[in-house]
Design brief:
The structure is a single chain. This protein has one domain: 3-Layer(aba) Sandwich (Rossmann fold), CATH 3.40.50. Mean pLDDT is 81; it is low at 53-72, 301-313 and 320-358. Strands 2-5-1-7-9-10-11 form a seven-stranded parallel β-sheet, with helices on both faces. It has a three-stranded antiparallel β-sheet with strand order 6-14-8, with no helix packed on it. The radius of gyration is 18 Å and the shape is globular. The protein contains nine helices and 14 strands. It has helices at residues 3-7, 10-13, 82-91, 122-134, 151-162, 238-255, 261-270, 286-290, 323-335, and strands at residues 23-28, 46-47, 57-62, 65-70, 106-111, 118-119, 139-142, 144-145, 166-170, 193-198, 216-219, 223-226, 232-235, 314-316. Helix 4 (122-134) runs parallel beside helix 5. The chain is α/β, with parallel strands linked by helices.
Length: 358
């Protein structure tokens, strides 16, 4: 059993829930749907990254039909490997011998990171989040971010919150010998569950960013995850800590389909195991969260206004409505198609320099 699964108490949680019925959107670099660990777990999704010159169309099988589409017009391909690692940590099938935290959850891949593992348009990432919400996501994982706020991206996060979708994001990574950095956007947005990373001893990993906006921690160093082509690799970064928390959230939503996103968030933070400094509420405990009492209302908090700045470049870090109205919204979303035929976005790709992810 992988050490990170024991660290978040996933095996004990599996006695009650395995993520069945839950869709986690991985807004990232795409996901290799052909990886044996993810066979049958990945929906077609969508790509917001343009095809490169010279890319050729091919036939891909979706269910029982053959549709002529571009290989990367959907999210089921990953030239970087980042999104595949994230998806595997969330929902790799148990039959592989390397299960994810929620081995029966479904992944909705939405590609926004280019071949250099970067995004250059925050509004585009916001549009990807809204698309994921409209196409059945119960949880959105954002293992990406940057230093600058974006009003357009923030509006998409609010859209997710209004539609009872939990958003989980990494706090970001920094140089081990550099100055302390602020928690990245979008993790520092109040309605987003901000996750930093720990080592095997439960201490904050030396390059994991933390701060007042940090909500939770999870293992984020020396994790074994799938890579495109069928293999595995060691990964380190808050990107992957975020994935583990998204998996834990999927277990909670699976076990308690009547709980709102806000209640799932409350369960995860209220039952976290206290640790050292910089870990927010502590290290996520999936089994304890399943047994949480979410009946007590949370204290009222004012959400600070975001600076309406534009993020020109950012990188991968692994580099709500309550009560009946929220449940009705979730019910309506589930009646919509999980995926639809979409055309890839038009227009030239904007390029800008960005820090490489870890």
């Amino acid at each position: 059993m992988a050490w990170h699964l024991s660290a978040v108490d996933a095996p004990a949680a599996w006695e009650a829930a395995t993520g069945e019925g839950i869709t986690v959107a991985v807004v990232d670099s795409g996901v290799d749907a052909d990886h044996p660990d993810l066979a049958g777990a990945v929906l077609p999704g969508r790509s917001y990254v343009d095809l490169d010159p010279g890319d050729e169309p091919r036939l891909m099988a979706f269910g029982s039909e053959q549709d002529p589409v571009y290989e990367r017009a959907f999210g089921q391909a990953d030239p970087v490997g980042h999104g595949t690692a994230v998806a595997g940590l969330i929902a790799a099938r148990a039959v592989s011998g390397r299960p994810g935290v929620a081995p029966d959850a479904v992944i909705l891949p939405v590609r926004v990171l280019d071949d250099e593992n970067r995004y250059h348009d925050s509004a585009m990432v916001g549009a990807a989040v809204e698309w994921a919400v409209d196409n059945g996501a119960d949880i959105v994982n954002l293992s990406l971010g940057g230093n600058y706020d974006s009003a357009q991206f923030a509006e998409a996060l609010a859209y997710a919150e209004r539609h009872d979708v939990l958003v989980v994001a990494c706090t970001g990574n920094q140089r081990g010998d550099g100055p302390e950095e602020e928690v990245w956007f979008p993790a520092r947005v109040p309605d987003v569950l901000a996750v930093t990373g720990t080592d095997a001893e439960g201490r904050r990993w030396q390059t994991a960013i933390t701060g007042e906006a940090t909500d939770l921690a999870a293992p984020g160093a020396d994790l074994w995850a799938p890579e495109p082509g069928g293999g595995h690799k060691a990964v380190t970064g808050t990107s992957f800590a975020s994935a583990l928390v998204s998996g834990a959230a999927a277990l909670v939503r699976s076990a308690h389909p009547d709980w709102t996103a806000a209640e799932v968030r409350r369960a995860l933070t209220a039952t976290a195991r206290p640790g050292g400094s910089g870990l927010g509420a502590g290290v996520v405990d999936a089994a304890a969260a399943l047994d949480a009492d979410v009946s007590a209302p949370p204290p009222a908090e004012a959400s600070p206004a975001l600076t309406p700045a534009w993020s020109l470049a950012a990188t991968a870090a692994g580099g709500g409505l309550l009560g009946l109205s929220a449940l009705l919204l979730r019910g309506r979303r589930r009646l919509r198609a999980r995926y639809r035929s979409v055309s890839r976005p038009r227009g030239a790709r904007v390029r800008a320099a960005a820090r490489p992810g870890v």
